[in-house]
Amino acid sequence: MHNLRQMETTANSRRNFVKTAAAGLGLLTLPQLLHAQADTPAGRKKIICFGAHPDDPESGCGGTLARLAGQGHQVTIIYLTTGEAGIEGKAHSEAAAIRKQEAMNACAILKAKPVFAGQTDGDTVMDNAWLVKVQKLIADEKPDLVFTHWPVDSHKDHQIASLLVIQTWVRSAKKFPLYFFEVCTGEQSMVFRPTDYVDISDTQELKRKSVYCHISQDPPGIYGCGHAAMEDFRGRELGVKAAEAFVYMIAKGQGSAVEYL
């Protein structure tokens, strides 16, 4: 029991450090955003979710995106690829057309704007040219907060998407709060230790509907790889019906040193 209490105290101290450090940098944290008044132009914030494929943002943090959009914030989903290699037996061009429409249908449910970066599913690259492109895509949106993949992931495309955003964050003169989401934890996202949770009890069904827009990707299979269990487990950790979890990345001071908490 003593060890458990000690762990809880340490965790609380680390969360307080995150909030204090973020406030010192003038960054809007996710808890603050969830309670921000979006009924005025000044209160409306711009949110980006950067995912590798159509269905990744929806399955990773669709409930959170729906909640933020429902509060009046502007949500943009940037898909690094259009899922070209994601439909067996179909040419890349045909698969991309199908999956782009599925993504657009999902974004309509989440009240998000879809943007397609233009890389190829299964053949993603991390180089200087693409880093410049991603920097521009993100800078053009002027985000107040960004979500992306957890970098310790078994899928190469997920890793590339995450690294492109991390490098954009590192090089950004104006830091934006950066949060990592999980997908198929244990199968894909690994060693994921959340710092933040979002109650999605009221938007869980919207999330499910957005995931089920991706008909070509076997939506029951997406949930079968652990997402239903994740929503339930993260909800139990938070003490609510359903939740999504995130890891927050912040800069220490004004330098480029980064600490995962």
Outline the fold blueprint.
Layout (H helix, E strand, L loop, with lengths): L1 H23 L5 H5 L11 E6 L4 H15 L3 E8 L10 H19 L1 E8 L8 H14 L3 E5 L6 H16 L6 E4 L14 E4 L4 H8 L7 H20 L4 E9 L6 E3 L1
Parallel strand pairs: 1-2, 1-4, 2-3, 4-5
Antiparallel strand pairs: 5-7, 6-7, 7-8
Give the CATH class.
Alpha Beta
Count of the domains: 1
CATH domain fold name = Rossmann fold
Using the 3D structure, state the CATH architecture. Answer: 3-Layer(aba) Sandwich
Superfamily at the CATH H level? LmbE-like
Catalogue the unreliable spans: 1-25, 253-261
Q: How many runs of DSSP E, i.e. beta strands?
A: 8
Record keyword descriptors for this entry:
Rossmann fold, eight-stranded mixed sheet, disordered N terminus, alpha/beta, disordered C terminus
Task: Give a structural overview.
The chain is an alpha/beta fold and 261 residues long. The chain has one domain: Rossmann fold (3-Layer(aba) Sandwich), CATH 3.40.50.10320. Helix content is 46%, strand content 18%. Strands 1, 2, 3, 4, 5, 6, 7 and 8 form an eight-stranded mixed β-sheet that branches. The N terminus and C terminus are likely disordered.
Question: What's this, in brief?
Answer:
The chain has 261 residues and is an alpha/beta fold.
